[in-house]
Amino acid sequence: MKHVLLSVTALTLLTGTALADDHDRESSYRYSSESSSYSRGIEMSVNPSPALVGSEVRFVCTATGNWEDSLERARITISNAADDKIVEKRRMDIHDRTATYDFTIPTDEMTGEWDFRCSLTDDEEHRERKTSQFTVTASVTGGGSGGGTDDPDSGTGAPPTTGNPLNAHQSIQSYDGPSTCIACHELEAQDMLESLHMQWSGPTPDVTNISGDDGKAVNGINTFCSYAMSSKGACFSCHVRADGNAPHAPELNDVDCMMCHNDTYQRTFVSDPNNIETVVNIDGETKTYVFGKVDAEGNYTTVPDFSKMPAGTTMVELARNVHLPTRKSCLRCHAKAGGGDWTKRGDMGLNTVAPTLVEDVHMSAEAGGADLTCSACHAAENHKVGGRGIDLRQTEAANPQCTDCHSAGPHSNSTLNRHAAGQVSCQVCHIREFGKGGATEMSRDWLKPVWNAGFCSGQGGFVGEEIKVANVKPEYVWFDGTSEVYSIGQTIQADERGVYPMANANGGAFDGNSKIVPIKRHYSIMPLHESGQIVAPAIMWMFMTGDFDQAVQKGMEEQGMTGSYQLVDVDAEMLISHGVEPASMAPSCTECHDYSGETPDGSGMVPFTELGYHTWPEEVKNCTLCHERKSLSWQSLHNEHASGEGALSCVSCHTSEPAGLVKPQSDLCNDCHGSKSWGGSELHKKHLEKGYECVRCHTFE
After folding, report:
1. Distance of alpha carbon 125 from its chain centroid, rounded?
2. How would you class 392 by CB atoms within 10 Å of its CB: exposed for 0-12, middle for 13-18, buried for 19 or more?
3. Which of 192, 334, 579, 655 could form a disulfide with 347 if both were Cys (CB 3.0 to 4.6 A apart)?
4. SS3 per residue for 334-362
5. Is 285 exposed, middle or buried, given 0-12, 13-18 or 19+ CB atoms closer than 10 A?
6. What pLDDT is recorded for position 119?
7. Per-residue pLDDT averaged across 516-539, rounded?
8. Any idea what the Cα angle at residue 407 is, between residues 405 and 408, rounded to 5°?
9. Distances from the Cα of 594 to the Cα of 400, 480, 603, 618, angstroms
């Protein structure tokens, strides 16, 4: 089997930098001393801008450039329009390299241009000061940050609150986290609170081996970064909870609306120099990692990351300019699932924001493209989003269907429409490759650690070797809409390949419910405990040390497991649904069929034998099951039997030899009528003419 490299971009929750050893710290200090202070700067902002008399204002000062680790001290001085100091050298709150200070402009103060000065000092005693101006007004005017009235002749100077509902946001004067949005949108926030995006778990009616709620936050494990809850927050960075998807149930104020409703918004987790872990890695190096700040309940703390937003951005400006989710909104998280751009899904990446026509005709804005947003198909009524696939657990809304927009017979050709109405999903013909916009991970090998200096927010870390491939031809499986997905605590068995399937589609050939679908098959290795359960590794120990055995041992300790384990090959089937190509790229008949009726696997797109198409009872193959032997070409045979009035279902011919009857013949016949004496092919012909399926009377192995 192939194994793989862990991509690092989605594992960037760890904040701060590694604590250097004495030699590195000394070298760093010499470099800083020899560099001019010009390499260190301060970005300053005021929220809201302009500031309003009588309202609270947040002053933000962020250290930029060549500072050492986090800030040690931060002071602020505020002077009014008359240059009187009304705040002098007050201590600011420090979050890593950002300092904030909240202050209410007194109601008796004069309006005009005010000053504020920040003085920042880091733990190496580097110090910088900077002064910036801001405007204080007595009322909101249309010229403020974030836009103004749509009607310049209205004479009011105030933003409209009718028409476009987003214009009402122009009256926002301060931003105090999610509570600012919830003040007006409590029902929407409550809907979001109850969603899978917030809960990270939910009902699993389409997973046949799980009853009840399950998900990443509840027993969820996968073949990529494995167990999210053991990542010390590394897997929480892009999810919508403001507290970083801590293990406890979310609260209303954890709904970070900006994550989906403003594409400019960026946030970061506050690092805690007291929340550290010192390890010896596989290279024999001692290294200390700094993690995010958490409270007694395990809540992380997030703050806006102004260093990743355009200079001068304020949270008030962002709140005033919220929008409905765009492709970029969704892809900020989904494009990097599994550890990096294009890594996990295989059919989407960051450049899916603006795909070419070939990469995705539905989302492309090029001529001939539909320029659809994600929500055009994944409708989010009450913030509940449909679209489960094979390897996902939860279902909270109906899956999008091609027939939501297209007719059940979308082709002008009746033969093609028969394919669409039968067992072939639309994706088979219209998504011929995945990974078209970037290489996607096909396997991951934790036993081959690879150092990445940019991992863990610049602290560096080890990732498993991954194999990434672009422009991949899918595999094909039968899928009836349900699947089996491994959940922590369950036992698991190897299949006929010797591989342990952690996510696989349910379905079978010609069962009346299944269609052929394209998949990406992802391989990895996992620890299998002697009890038959997969061990959820404490994956952060792998990232820090490069020692997967240590991560497994730590995971066993956390889960109260003792005894031995072995490493086994695992895989997961993942539905490919994005990346639909123009209709002109659909395969011709000869790309799938050689017109023999027994096209060998490997000679065409679809492996017919593997999928069960070439399994027939001998009487079906020689056409004597229902009538005397006849000679028809493969295409004529299908036109005769599979279309028009009295068409047979595929399972009437494509089936294995019957193993027996569902009950004794005398009793079976009496279910519908008194016993009759029909012989040979006449008996089958009469029943098939009535539309009875073989399984009504016969059992099959």
Report:
1. 42
2. buried
3. 579
4. HCCCCCCCCCCCCCCCHHHHCCCCCCCCC
5. exposed
6. 95
7. 98
8. 125
9. 34, 28, 9, 22
